[in-house]
Amino acid sequence: STIIKKLFLEGKMVTVNTEIDFAGAEEIALEYEIMCEKEVKVDMIEELLKEEEENEADMTSRPPVVCVMGHVDHGKTSLLDAIRETNVISGEAGGITQHIGASVVKINDRKITFLDTPGHEAFTAMRMRGAQSTDIAILVVAADDGVMPQTVEAINHAKAAGIEIIVAINKIDKPGANIERVKQELAEYELLAADWGGNTEMVPVSAHTREGIEELLEMVLLQADVLELKANPDRMARGIVIEAKLDKGKGPVSTVLVQKGTLHIGDHIAAGANYGKVRAMTDDRGNRITEAGPSTPVEILGLSGVPNAGEVFVAKETANEAKAFAETFIADSKEKLLEGTKYRISLDDINSQIKAGNLKELNIIIKADVQGSVEAVKQSMLKLSNEEVEVKVIHGGVGAINESDVILASASNAIIIGFNVKPDAQAEEIATREKVDLRLYSVIYNAIEDIERAMKGMLEPIY
Ligand code: GDP
């Protein structure tokens, strides 16, 4: 519209479908120089990050990557600790786990990789940057407390990412534990226990007595078999940064998860605007290693700077290629570069996106002051679906709009509707930064009408 307006002021009547000759296009391009360069750069980055096609014959099975989610105090940290300790007792050499942000557990001679930062926020924050880190989520629910608000958040974050959920019903050693009640409550969120005829495995455990932990890990392996997780180990490594810091003595220290290929000492790598040669590699037990295959977390030394968590890392044939990769990111951060072009849904352009065929699902998150309103708004929203676009409520809950809601919206390209609630300060800040469309209402009818009008392209603009 900016360009049409500019041309209009020059006396040239054009529409969005008008072809412009080369000279004319060049003139416009020159005038909007910065924007054009930016677009080219974004293209370059997308090209750099593009995945090569893999040959099925080169793929071999790889360990599952698992994260632990659940309500605060339901035992996520205790369970992770218990899992690691169970493993040490079962005779694994190397002893005490070193904290590198992820750990590998061995059971029945097979491996499972655990991401050490519990919680769905950490998980979705990575996804927000475009990285899918996890295959399976263990949802921890305390047997004496049942389903709580963050349990629901975790369920919806995992579902939005399309990852498998295995439930660990924790604290079964406690007198108030009621396993059946937890199953019943989870059924309300479409997680039906396998022994109740459903598809979700639910394993009663105690992080304290360690009862059920082996069964839980076996269930993870079974699920991994169903998912047929595979990767090609014989190619240049590629993966994501799990965490990174600056160490006074060692320089930038990064924990990366190798997702494809094998990373070796001496490989030239780049992660975001940083590049270098892998000088040293340490596994989760603190052992020096020389190579790391798919699903292996390793701490590496040798990058020129500290990359962001969630950033993609790649190994390259030569130092120059790695440097060139990183330099594409240097002038500006990738996030900043992508900001201008990253497609963010907003009520104002839903209709044009539907018309352009870009939007088949409209994702909505509903927060309200009472559960009754969440349900009422949800049911009305779902009814707005038509042949062109399906309206999906990916999360609904009672309470203020929080950080978790906003990162979920950002990662899943959703619109947030608040009914008689407001965003908290942190949520508001992230929503602004991530350009998440957040709408507040006090009359249900107005919310429904706005979405309906937006879908039809009749929304009155807000100034
Ligand atoms: P997180 O917030 O989900 O990481 O929960 P924590 O792991 O910090 O656990 C919260 C509290 O519950 C702590 O006091 C733990 O000792 C306790 N807890 C965790 N797991 C169990 C369990 O299996 N049995 C009992 N009795 N207490 C547990």
- Main sheet specs: 6 strands, mixed
Q: How far from one another are the termini?
A: 17 Å
Structural class: alpha/beta
Strand content: 15-25%
Q: Give a count of the beta strands, DSSP E runs of length 2 or more.
A: 20
Uncertain regions spanning at least 5 consecutive residues: 89-95, 337-342
Shape: flat
Strand ordering within the main sheet: 3-4-2-5-6-7
Spatial extent as radius of gyration: 25 Å
Bin the helical content: 25-40%
Work out the helix count. Answer: 15
Average pLDDT: 86
Ions, cofactors and other ligands present here are: guanosine-5'-diphosphate
Structure description:
There is one protein chain. The protein has helices spanning 2-9, 22-31, 33-49, 76-89, 120-128, 149-161, 179-187, 213-227, 319-330, 334-339, 350-355, 371-382, 403-412, 425-434, 444-456; strands at 60-61, 65-70, 102-107, 110-115, 136-142, 164-170, 202-204, 230-231, 238-247, 251-260, 263-264, 268-271, 274-282, 291-292, 297-303, 312-316, 361-368, 390-398, 414-419, 438-441. The chain is of the alpha/beta class. A 6-stranded mixed β-sheet has the order 3-4-2-5-6-7, with helices on both faces. Strands 9-10-15-13-12-16 form a 6-stranded antiparallel barrel. Strands 18-17-19-20 form a 4-stranded parallel β-sheet, with helices on both faces. The longest helix has 17 residues, at 33-49. The two termini are 17 Å apart. Guanosine-5'-diphosphate is lined by residues 70, 72-78, 118, 170-171, 173-174, 206-208. Residues 64-212 are annotated as: G-domain. It is found in: Cytoplasm.
